[in-house]
Amino acid sequence: MAVTSGYLGSEKANAEHHEEEHDPRESLMYDPRPRGEMNAMVMESMHTTSWKFWVVLGVLAFLVATCFFYAWGYMIAEGLGVAGVNRPAYWGVFLVNTVFWIGISHAGTFISAILRVMKAEFRRPFTRAAELMTTFGLIQAGASIFMHLGRVWLAYWMFPIPNERQLWPNFHSPLMWDLLAITTYVLGSTMYLFLPLIPDLAMARDRSTGWRKTFYRILALGFRGTEGEWRHLTTAMNIFAFAIIPVMFSVHTIVSWDFAMASRPGWSSTVFGPYFVLGALHSGMGAVAIVLVIMRATMKHMDYFIRKEHFDALGKLMMIVSFTYAYFFFNDYIVQWYGGDKWTDTLLHWLEEGPMAWMFYQMIAFNIVIPFLTLWNKRVRTTPWLLALIGGLINVGMYWERYIIVPVMLSINRMPFTWRLYEPGIEIYLTIGTFAMFLLFYMIASRLIPLIPVWEVQEGQMVHSLRKVGKAHVPTVSEFE
Amino acid sequence: MSNLNIDLNRVGAKGALAEEADGKWGMVIDQDVCTGCQACVAACAMENNIPFVMEEDAAYGRTLHWIRIERFWEGEYPEVRTTPYQPMLCQQCGSAPCEPVCPVFASVHSQAQELNLQVYNRCIGTRYCANNCPYQVRTFNWRDYAIEPFHANDFDGQLVFPLHNQFNPDVTVRRRGIMEKCTFCIQRIHKAEDKAKSEGRAVEDGEFTTACAQACPTNAITFGLLDDSESLVSQLANHKHGYRHLEEMNTLPRITYLQEG
Amino acid sequence: MSEKISRRDFLRLASVGAATTAVLTGCGPASRYVQREPYARMPEYTYNGLSTYYATTCRECAAGCGLIVRTMQGRALKVEGNPNHPVNRGKTCPRGQVTLQGLYNPNRVRGPLQHARGEALYDANFQDAQPNLDWEAAIRVVADALEETAGVAFLMGTASDHLFDLVSDLANAAGASAPIRFSAGSMFETRATLSQATENLFGRAGLPYFDIANSDLVLSFGANFLETWLSPVAYNFAFGKMRRGNPQRRGHFIQFEPRMSQTGSKADDWFPIVPGTEGMVAAAIGRLVAEAKGEPLPRAFASVDLEAVTSASGVKLEALAQIAQLVISAFAPIAIPGGPSLGMSNGLATAEAVLSLNALVDNFGKPGGVFLSPLSPNQDPDGYHRPASAQEMADFIDRMKSGEIKTLFIHGVNPIFELPKSLGFAEALANVGTVISFATFPDETAVASDYVFPDHHGLEAWGYQRIATGAMQSVLSGLQPVVSPFQDTRATADVFIAAAQLTGGEPARALPFNDEVAYIQSKLANLVGQADGSFNAPEINSFSAYFQQHGGWWKNSAEEVAVDAASALGRELMASQAQFAGAGEFFFVPFVAPTLAEAGANKPWLQELPDPMTTVMWNTWVEMNPETAHELGIDNDDVVKIISEAGEVEAPVYLYPAIRPDTIAMPFGQGHTAYGRYAQGRGTNPADIFGLLFNEAGDLTFAGMKVKVEKTGRKQPLSRLESRIGVYGEGMGEEGH
What we know:
The structure holds 3 protein chains of 3 kinds. By secondary structure, chain A is mainly α. Chain A has one domain (25-152, 169-477): Formate dehydrogenase/DMSO reductase fold (Up-down Bundle), CATH 1.20.1630. Chain A contains 18 helices and 2 strands. In chain A, a hairpin with a 2-residue loop joins strand 1 (464-469) and strand 2. In chain A, helix 3 packs antiparallel against helix 17 (427-446), helix 7 (197-206) runs antiparallel to helix 8 (210-220) and helix 9 packs across helix 10. By secondary structure, chain B is α+β, with helices and mostly antiparallel strands. Chain B has helices spanning 39-47, 54-59, 98-101, 128-132, 186-198, 211-215, 232-237, and strands spanning 25-30, 68-70, 73-74, 81-82, 86-88, 107-110, 115-118, 139-140, 153-155, 158-160, 179-180, 221-225, 242-243, 255-258. In chain B, a hairpin with a 6-residue loop joins strand 3 and strand 4. The longest helix of chain B has 13 residues, at 186-198. The model of chain B is unreliable at 8-19 (pLDDT under 50). The longest helix of chain C is centred in the middle third of the chain and has 16 residues, at 278-293. Among the domains of chain C are: 113-183 and 387-452, Rossmann fold; 188-375 and 565-569, Dimethylsulfoxide Reductase, domain 2 (3-Layer(aba) Sandwich), CATH 3.40.228; 586-728, Barwin-like endoglucanases, CATH 2.40.40.20. At the B-C interface, helix 1, helix 2, strand 2, strand 4 and helix 6 of B face strand 4, helix 2, helix 3, helix 8 and helix 23 of C.
């Protein structure tokens, strides 16, 4: 709050806000550069690594080795006793992480698929960055759900593998739906990440030597940019764009059913499906904002591709999502409160006054109050560090939200004799491990594949032009599909 | 599939396919005479190879008691009293919330005994069943409690666990990562069934009882055949003081509690 | 007698018991009358997958419940109650259930050993010390000690068993002092007081048996009969009958005590009276009952000042009158004295007052009334061999200090832990020439001994045990090994017999036996052919086979004990307030931890059983009224120091809603400095702060202290099964739920 107070109600800010509207050349689409130059910029951003990059990479690799692999191995060997799960909080931070990472992964699909289908032009430079988050986030989500298993070495028993005992997984179980939904989503989103990547890989192939050339040649699948290839690619992308949207909505709905299908106070809520989807978008948007700011600050030439207009658009999106999220949030809680169930009442009481109440109020502040109070202001939206900060707070808030839904709500059940608070144990390290792994993958990817979908930017710039009418520049868009 | 005695259509299905009958094996717990002495808890642990978890894990809510005795306080001093002791164990629901949620059919319903079974070697430890159990009577093996080196004697580097001599060979010893719960001493049920089968008759009420009912010094626990109208347990189950826990959830519990008075 | 009978003959003799479905055999793998056969011909008790059941007697406390132990291939798997046994009727308490964890405890004394006093019997990693003697040498040590008979003393556990008889015979023959029996159990049960009060009223010493089962109104003055008191399984069983046995009438139960015990928690009416006023309250009720009946006031209650009673005890007159009405309208009212209320300076008067109340309602020897526990078969009719009171233990310790005792044999008791520290047993040991312990477990006393010659665990042992109370008929409970000895242990009876033979002379003549079993048979011989027995047999071999198969021998009918109620009522009662030692502001009520008792701490599952009232596991706690604690600024888990005149002890606080604000309570059972990996270093021992005051019957006034409480500033979270959120509403805001 203190960060943004200077902007609230400031007339000066409003005045500037109107001035800025008027220069279309600030926009990437109307600020074209030659294709060759742009390609070179992207290639250079991939090739440039400073010592800082390697230091951070090393630190992350170390964290992954210790906090992820070693800690997980230790937990497998010792049993879940080293984690903080207990009775009645049988599920803990691992499930929180799963839901959180799936939430993060939603941003990618939303930005690239829905905005593509909606033809929102501002999406063009950062679809790839968002899609990468989808894939890497899902890897962390999958890992977290496996960490959560008591006997992870037998996890394959959840797969419907034919066997002589005719033992099949139980398709009544929401966890099975989960498994299928997440698997579908991982496969779909990976394909959807890969398809738009092909032209850029081909571009990179043509501009690389050595192992990179081999790497890109294999991945580019011989793409040469002929009319037919483009037509096939566009068709495939359209199919996937439309197909992935229902998967995206379903996957988080299904994740929410893990909770909503259980007969527990606080969990058995019919609004959990859309509530979770909106929650996912909320945290996902925040995460995209952070990633874009970091990209822009650390990688070469990114200030050309990622501009204030993008932050502005993202900020607006975040605000809208926050509004919608708030609706579902209060819907969920108020309906539950209105239901008047004895145990739900106790649970709400526990959330509001129990030892974890601070988390409950922080969640409301970070997810609803702060976005509401700040994001209406263009100055805030276009200040990258502020937007990243708000995105970060939203993510903290959304993490708290999942934390409240999983272990905090599990502390209260219908048997008061068993109520007990949950305290994370080795989960803390493993959470650090998943975050480190996510960042590590992202950093490696940023130097291997073009984070900016150059062809999409170029395509956009081709169809957008400024016509000079008198002294004014009038933007025009031609049909390209 | 036929000889598995598990009807997959019934497993996990709530509502329409729930059992109509009262159930086969049942229990009545008389809270008026339960003195909270813990003999049932000890007997259960001894019969079912339940590991102990030591002080730290016990304090953190990781005890593996399959049966626990709950008591609350009522009133203020000097009019204070404890609520009647309430032994809480798996209610062997006819429509059990733990069953449909298990992704690998480790928590299943047996048609033959009409009990909730936990198949230890099938369990992968998702702990969904425990979350969904409204009675919170499922316990999880957070560690390999039985083979902690602390309990072992060291013979030239070889660890020997004298306490393991006592393990009941009829009951699986569970390793880490597995959910477990009260089984109504199914090993005893099986023994009685085998015996009855070899004698060409049906199992009779009172032929055997569970470890907890056997130990209970006040006879607060009665176990037997619910579907035998002559049996003590089926008569007590219809006692005017009888009630069932969380009946509003329609879990069809097989355990009836008798109130004070 | 020494003629061998084959196993098959034996089984033919030992036919299947009628009331049990399990096949009970009277002879186990450790039987010395079994002929060895090649492994290819598997004896039926080791068939794969088949269990064998042996009847024996529980040795976890002195009550002597009958057990049936399931074994398979030489391992004991499960303890079950013996359904025919008159004490426990097929039921067990948690301690009986977990006795197997004693048998297979990872810390047992492995074999005979000699060590420096104070030297631990296991290392820092709890690995047991290796035996450094063989049994021949051990027997030689015992024989040498027996040579000098004048300086020999025997200290044994509470139960009156075959070993006690054997040692008594030996001591008699050798001219040594008679063996003394003691345990913390008998101290907290205040057996001496009960026995003295019974003698004063009935004219015969012994423990009364209260027929709760057939009573419909139970007034308990501090008696913790559902926990560890005298015969808990028998009383639990009876309690069930009292409540539900008669479909027309549910027994009503009223408890008077300053701190709600587990027993008190089952009461319909619970009166938190001022400690030490139980006798006055009983007398007042007696007076009110007599007045209401319109009978002339008996002398016993004539001098009761009702005003004084109500002001001293805190029980309102209306309440007393109501109770009196209940007593009058009840068919079979009964009043029980016991527990901490007798462990006070006026304990004997309290016991007499409560027993007189029974005399007033004339329930002696009637169903639902008070019986004098019958003598066990084979028991010397001259006297009930009650265990030593604390006073007698103090005298014994004085003898030790004087150097009079050259050799002290200790069996079945752990006096360093169980006796109050202030009695100075550990210090007195320094003046004893040789201390020989027969401990099965590496307990504190074994550590402080010169020699440890471990006896078998109760489940590996032969024997019999007299039932002091818990049944209305005469019972001799039988023990037989259910498994072969797990360690290199030897029956103490065998050691004494062998040593006596080696010594020669009088001891050898007193114990002319091959082994323990021969001795037991010699003692059983006069039961052969007795009428009204649970079984009969023409000669001793069959008789002892049946004895083992049935788990003992008992009369089928209750013994009639003639009691003169009128003379009991004609005595002047001295019920008055108790005197308390110490200047503290709190009454101190120590009680035996219901799940652990005095010797349960080394069994991990007993440690893991939640205390019924507090649900605390694995530790010691101090119970304090929440209001008091609030005033003192003390919260849950705050470690406090309790200071008495005799010492101080620290433990974390449990805010206990059902205790008088001027009283604190603490369980006895933890605080071991040895006794194996599960016991050592857990909790504290309230016996460390007991003062040296005895009541008229010689029992320690363990509940007769006032103590100070000081905060230490430390916190030690107690391991509770209950949820503090759910049960006490912690963290749920102002209202709680």
